[in-house]
Amino acid sequence: MVALLALCVQLIALRAPLGNDDLPRRLLLVSSYLLLLTFVAFNITRIGIAVIGGGLLLNFIAILANGGLMAITPETILKSGTLPDDAVVGEWLPGSKDILLERADVHLWFLTDRLVWDDISSVFRAFSIGDVIIVVGLALTLLDILLPRWGTVPEEAGPASARHQGEAELP
After folding, report:
1. How far apart are CA 111 and CA 34, in angstroms?
2. Which run of H or of E encompasses 112?
């Protein structure tokens, strides 16, 4: 429930008509990461969730270091397409979690949205190392959920159960 709430908060931060001031978006994005990290903390024993948490933490650090939004450079955007007409250096990129910054102004650049994969989509332009780790964690979580547990043997009732545990039946 906490993770769903966090994703809803992110959706509001990215898509809601909150005006030209990006402060509400920054606060909502940071709040959503705090909620997601809380979810991870309560589910840390699942390996996939722990890996997701590592990716979220890397993204959260980059977001905090750049004032509450994920930094992206014009060069990164141009590697994956064209710069949006409404893009202004130093400001939030509408419809995204990104702030457009010159490379020299980006803090912790290696953690920001700097990786591109040609023509993914017009919405998904670039991604971070944290995003890659999150995808690995999601895959591990799906495998954990969908595959049967190794080493788990269902208990059987009756005398047949004793035979399966290595005890022989006497004639």
Report:
1. 18
2. none
